[in-house]
Every structure is written in structure tokens, then in C-alpha cells.
Design a protein that fits this description.
The complex is a heterodimer. Chain A is mostly helical. Chain A is built from 13 helices and two strands. By secondary structure, chain B is α/β, with parallel strands linked by helices. In chain B, about 35% of the residues lie in helices and about 30% in strands. The two termini of chain B are about 35 Å apart. Classes of the chains: A mainly alpha, B alpha/beta.
Chain lengths: ~300, ~300
């Protein structure tokens, strides 16, 4: 009896103003990122992403230091006197100079890690809601179905941006500090906007694709296979068709990752004429990305609409 | 405060040709309401309408001061819904699960967290609140589902089979909790279940649905009323002979209660002296003869089978 009385004392009614359902979406997004951080398996991949970031971070610093301090100095290399500037020419290929190509390359490399993590995490973030019947929990709350989709989208988007846009912005700030910052930030404003633009393309396309594919296949292994199909098989096929069979460059449009890269380069204002391989037009790439996103949205709307909250 | 909990006026819901709910007119007072019905009765459709997930095809209704309709977020704010499905989010701890429910209901983050701790404490899940929900026992899972329904302190609790899969002790504990919420904390409760005993144990009112129509509703105490044609009977002696004689006179034998007494339904114009006459004629003695009340189960079966 005492136990009952004691427990009843703890229940208190709550009176306050309830917030907009959008805050519910934000809460879902926050917990999604927390769930990603809890998986110990992913920390190896995060460490790899951090190494890529440090490579670019210290690479930029090293290039500037060599250019300013030692480029004209001569050292003995195998007994032959060589200028230090000549020795470090291979670094030029990496474009570690705060240019549009620097950020495009960085996001390209980080993108691989993001894709692998998302393929592994899709089932945790979204698939489980369908697999384990968590959806009635969300949809029985005072949020609309669009808020559920928004919450999942924001969760994946946050994660994508933490690994790509945010470190790219740090590299941008660092580049400005390494060069003449007043001139650099003004001259490279397009790159700053481009980083956000590339991030937006990545966020939108990857988030929608992940949520849609996780809703479709639900489990981790099929999800990895599906993502491998989209990002590895299609890419290989595109290379075979365009580089091997010498078909039109438009065939590369089946490579979604390449389309995202082209859209990113366009956002960053990079010179697309420099690209060695035959490529489709940027507008075509953007049109393909938009179509994929639209398809995902239509599928998600139908799929979430069909969920029975009460069975 | 005296406004009814639920008012339905000629409510109808169809899915294509199929009529799920047909001309439901009902006014239910605040309190603990049991929603009973066989599969396909329309309970799920009615719950969906009450949750504001689908709109009625025709007719109207109000839950407290909110009109019923599709995608009614405001309506769901009044309701704490405990689904029948497992509905857990794997990977979250109990407190995160309940806190997230609070935020989804619109509580600010800190208040959602505080409420989650309070509610989990109230439901005696204090010790387990930092464990992952998928590691909970079935009883704990049901309680944490009740906690997430309760976190925003709703006026109405909509419980879909809350005792499903629980052992007798867990079922008793859950029903006690539901009862306390209704009696001590003033929550209105709509309990949808197949288990009539749950409704009898907790609810003040019951609504019986079958074939999309209301077959009966009213206070449980009235539905389980004492009837003039029902008796509990205990006979010693030639029991078989008595039984045959009673059956010949039109007495129907109902399933026996847990005491082992006969439960009989007598025909119209039956005189109770006939029990004694028949017993005497068969060298038997009547040890007990009392009027019998109709259980909710019997009322339910009668209501459903009447159509």
C-alpha cells in the first residue's frame, strides 16, 4: 500500500504551452545523430574521415609553408641538388591551395565514408521503424506524416553535413588565414557559397535516397547491396560505357555520385572544362538528381501513408 | 468540465464499397470507457477517427472540444495513445524513448526530459530507465508504452489492448495502473480490447460494436444487471434426473460459473416453486437458489448475436 501511495506522489500533471510539431522533427533528427554516434563499429569510419580532413588541413598548411619558406631552397636529393619546390610538385595534383577544386576533392573523398556509414546505418535510422513497428509510435503523436519524413531527413542531413560541409568550411577558414585573409575571403566568396550548395545537394539526395531505400529494404545487408548497386555498380557501368565502349558522355548520368560531383563543382565555380573524362552537361546531372529526389519523395509519401497506426 | 468525452452524430466511414462504421450516434461521458467488439467490428476504424488519422465519410463528432477529422494534430494533443503493436524504437533507452515522445507531443526538451523521469518513476520503471527498451521484459514494454502515452499529461488515454501478452500478475498491475489514472488523476480512458474481463475490471461504461454498428452501450453496472430469468442453483441428490426434468420444462443451462453451481435461464411465466417440486419429485434437495446477474461476456455475446 505504501508503495502505491509513494508512486502516486510522483505523478504530477503538466501545464504549459506545447510547441510546433516541427520541434518534434528536430528531436527525431537529434536522436538519429546520437544513435549514429553510439555505434562503435562506425567510429573506425569516423576516424578515417578525420584522417582525410587532417590530410587536407595539414596539406594546405604544408603547401603554403613550402611555397613561402623553402620553395627556392636547394636540397641534395640522391646526391643531386634539387629545388624543394620541384620536389613537392606532386602536391599540386591534390590542389591543396584553397581553390574550388580543394573543397570539391575533399567532399568527394569524405563522400565515400559518408556513403559507407549511411549504408550501414540506414537500417538503424529508418529501416527499424518499419521492421520493428516503431512507426505507430511516431504517427500516434501530434505530428503529421510529413513531420516524420522531415525528422528522418534532417537526421541523415545533419550527419552528412557534419562529415562534409562543416569540415569543408573549416578548411575554407583555414585557407583564408594561410593566405591574405581579407583578399581570400572576398575573392573566394563563390567557393563559400559553393560549399553550402554542394552540401545541400549531398544532403538532399543522400538523405532522401537513404530514407527511401531503408523504407524499401529495411535490413542492413540488403541496404548495403542496394547502395552498392547505385553507387558502385552504376559507376562501374558508366565508366565501361563511356570510357570503354566510347559511348556518349551522357551515359555517365547513371552514375549518381558523379552527378553529385558535377553539381558540386558547378556550385563551387570550378572550371569544368579541365575535366579529363568526357562528362554530361551539368544541367543534365542536376536534372537526374532532382528526378531521383522526386521519385524518393513520391515513394516515401505513399509508403508512410500506407502505414497502419492501428492494426 | 461537464462536457461529454465523445459525441458522435450519424458517423459513417466507408472504404470503397465496404462500410466500416455505419450511422454511429453516441454520447459518452468522461470516465473510463471500454470499447468492445469482435474482429471487423469497426473498433480500429473508430480509433483512427478518434486519433484524427482519418476523417469520417459522413456525420460528425467531437472529442472533448475538438471536432473529428483527418490529420488533426490538435486532436492528438489531447490524446495519449498506447498502440497494440510493439512500437518501440530500438537503440533508445527508456528515458530517451519517453522523452522523445514528449518532444513529439510538443513539450520543450528539458520539460520532456523531466516529465519522462517523473512518469517512468510513477510507472515503477525508475531502475530500468537507462536500459535500452528492446531489453525490457514484456510487462516493462507495456508500461513504457503507457509512459510515452502519458508523458504530455493528456486528458484522454486511448489504450489499444494494453494487457495483450501479459501474464496474470502483469495484467493485474496494468489494470490497476489504468484504474488509478482514471480514478485518481482524472484521465478519461478509452480502452479497446477483446478481453471483456479487462473492461469489467476497469471501465465505467462500455460500448459494444459489431458489423460497424453500436450494438449496445451504457454503464457496465447496468449492462451486467441482475436478471429475473437467471438463477444460480445447487442441488444435492439425483442431480441428473433433476437436470433432465428441468430441461424438459424449458429451463436452459448456461455455462457454469467458477463455484460449480448451475446457471440456468428459465422460460417466461416460470414459477420458482417448480424448482422445489421437481427436486422433490426426483428425491433431491435444493441447497442454494439465488438470482444470477448477466456477465458482460454474456451481454456482449447476446448483443453481437442478436443481429
Amino acid at each position: 500500500m505504501n508503495e502505491v501511495s509513494d508512486s502516486l506522489l510522483r505523478y504530477r500533471s503538466w501545464r504549459g504551452t506545447l510547441q510546433s510539431p516541427v520541434w518534434g522533427s528536430w528531436a527525431m533528427a537529434r536522436l538519429s545523430v546520437a544513435q549514429m554516434a553510439r555505434r562503435k563499429l562506425f567510429w573506425g569510419l569516423y576516424a578515417l574521415a578525420l584522417m582525410i580532413f587532417f590530410f587536407f588541413f595539414y596539406g594546405q598548411y604544408l603547401v603554403v609553408w613550402i611555397q613561402l619558406q623553402t620553395a627556392q631552397q636547394t636540397v641534395l636529393f640522391g646526391g643531386v641538388p634539387v629545388k624543394v619546390g620541384e620536389l613537392t610538385k606532386f602536391l599540386d595534383r591534390l590542389n591543396l591551395n584553397g581553390s574550388a577544386q580543394t573543397f570539391a576533392n575533399f567532399i568527394w573523398f569524405q563522400g565515400y565514408i559518408v556513403m559507407i556509414v549511411l549504408a550501414l546505418a540506414g537500417a538503424v535510422l529508418v529501416g527499424n521503424d518499419f521492421q520493428y513497428g516503431s512507426l505507430p509510435y511516431y504517427l500516434g503523436k501530434p505530428i503529421a506524416r510529413r513531420h516524420y519524413i522531415l525528422g528522418k531527413f534532417l537526421g541523415v542531413g545533419l550527419f552528412v553535413n557534419i562529415l562534409t560541409t562543416l569540415p569543408a568550411l573549416i578548411l575554407f577558414v583555414q585557407a583564408g588565414l594561410l593566405y591574405d585573409w581579407e583578399v581570400y575571403y572576398v575573392d573566394h566568396l563563390r567557393q563559400l557559397i559553393g560549399i553550402f550548395g554542394y552540401g545541400l545537394f549531398l544532403t538532399t539526395a543522400l538523405s532522401l535516397l537513404l530514407v527511401a531505400s531503408a523504407v524499401l529494404v529495411r535490413r542492413t545487408v540488403p541496404l548495403i547491396m542496394l547502395w552498392s548497386g547505385v553507387f558502385v555498380l552504376c559507376r562501374t557501368l558508366a565508366n565501361l560505357l563511356v570510357d570503354g565502349a566510347r559511348l556518349d558522355g551522357a551515359w555517365r548520368l547513371i552514375d549518381l555520385w558523379n552527378n553529385l560531383y558535377l553539381a558540386g563543382l558547378w556550385c563551387l565555380g570550378a572550371d569544368l572544362g579541365d575535366m579529363k573524362r568526357e562528362q554530361p552537361e551539368v544541367w543534365q546531372a542536376i536534372a537526374v538528381i532532382a528526378s531521383v529526389c522526386l521519385l524518393c519523395l513520391v515513394y516515401l509519401r505513399k509508403r508512410v501513408q500506407a502505414v497502419e497506426v492501428i492494426s | 468540465m461537464n462536457a461529454p468525452l465523445l459525441t458522435l452524430n450519424s458517423l459513417r466511414r466507408t472504404f470503397g464499397e465496404f462500410v466500416a462504421l455505419d450511422d454511429i450516434t453516441l454520447t459518452l461521458p468522461r470516465g473510463r470507457i471500454g470499447l468492445l467488439g469482435p474482429n471487423g467490428a469497426g473498433k480500429s476504424t473508430l480509433l483512427k477517427i478518434l486519433l484524427g488519422l482519418i476523417a469520417p465519410t459522413a456525420g460528425s463528432g467531437m472529442l472533448l472540444d475538438q471536432p473529428l477529422g483527418e490529420d488533426r494534430v490538435e486532436l492528438r494533443r489531447l490524446i495519449g495513445f498506447m498502440p497494440e503493436a510493439e512500437a518501440l524504437v530500438p537503440g533508445l533507452t527508456g528515458v530517451e524513448y519517453v522523452s522523445l515522445a514528449g518532444e513529439l507531443c510538443g513539450l520543450p526538451r528539458r520539460q520532456a526530459q523531466r516529465r519522462a523521469h517523473e512518469v517512468l518513476g510513477y510507472l515503477q520503471l525508475e531502475e530500468a530507465r537507462y536500459r535500452r527498451v528492446e531489453e525490457y521484459s514484456l510487462g516493462m514494454k507495456q508500461r513504457v508504452k503507457l509512459a510515452q502515452a502519458l508523458v504530455h499529461d493528456p486528458q484522454v488515454l486511448l489504450l489499444d489492448e494494453p494487457t495483450s501478452g501479459l501474464d496474470p500478475a502483469g495484467r493485474d498491475a496494468m489494470l490497476r495502473l489504468v484504474n488509478e489514472l482514471g480514478t485518481m488523476h482524472g484521465k478519461s480512458i478509452i480502452l479497446s480490447t477483446h478481453l471483456l474481463a479487462d473492461v469489467q475490471a476497469v471501465c465505467e461504461h462500455a460500448v459494444i460494436l459489431a458489423g460497424g454498428r453500436v450494438r449496445g452501450h451504457g454503464p457496465v453496472s447496468e449492462l451486467c444487471k441482475i436478471r429475473d430469468d437467471r438463477y444460480r442453483l445447487r442441488i444435492d441428490g439425483n442431480v441428473d434426473g433433476c437436470r433432465t426434468a428441468l430441461e424438459t420444462r424449458g429451463v436452459t443451462f448456461l455455462p457454469a460459473g467458477h463455484t460449480g453451481d448451475w446457471r440456468v435461464s428459465v422460460p417466461a411465466a416460470w414459477n420458482n416453486c417448480d424448482f422445489f417440486k421437481i427436486a422433490k419429485n426426483h428425491e433431491s434437495v435444493i441447497r442454494s437458489l439465488v438470482r444470477d446477474d448477466e456477465t458482460l461476456e454474456e451481454y456482449f455475446l447476446r448483443s453481437v448475436n442478436d443481429e
